[in-house]
# Entry
Amino acid sequence: MKIQIHRGSNQIGGCVCEIESSGYKVFIDFGEQLPGAEKISLHPIEGLTCGDSSKSALFITHYHADHIGKIIEALDDLPIYLGKTALEIYQHYTKRLTYIKDRTESDKNKNLLQRTKTITTFEALQKIKVGGITVIPLLVDHSAFDAYMFIIEAEGKRILHTGDFRGHGFRGKALLKTLRAYA
Ligand SMILES: [Zn+2]
# Structure
């Protein structure tokens, strides 16, 4: 198992992680940088933005722009996964943004909306296979509804990608119970 953080190790937001095992790749989050962050451009990433997408998949923890905002730059046929309710909310939100007066931003949101139509949804604890890699979503509380952490299993190892989460809020008290039970 090889883990590579393409962006986001020295800043909040704009994170892109890659977990590779026997030629298969799982990417987690593909977001915009938050305002004020030092601009870090991404180099082309094999299996995400260039090359062959047949052995990779992109998983999105939640619909905040610093986690999902760059999906239009992903390869057209790359499978993208997002929580079921999260997708509905993100589509409504993106649709509203296509009506704004700024032409460039409006066009960008039209493309984003189009790309969301190809997204596959999952539910908590559903096991998703990408080659020999298994991804298991854990529902957590965050200021975006239907947010997830991911357990990634391969080669007898398990890692936890937390995404954004909080220990307070509507479902915050479930956090430790969830981690004890599954992580
Ligand atoms: Zn967030």
Summary: The chain has a mean pLDDT of 95. The chain is about 20% helix and 30% strand. The chain has one domain: 2-182.
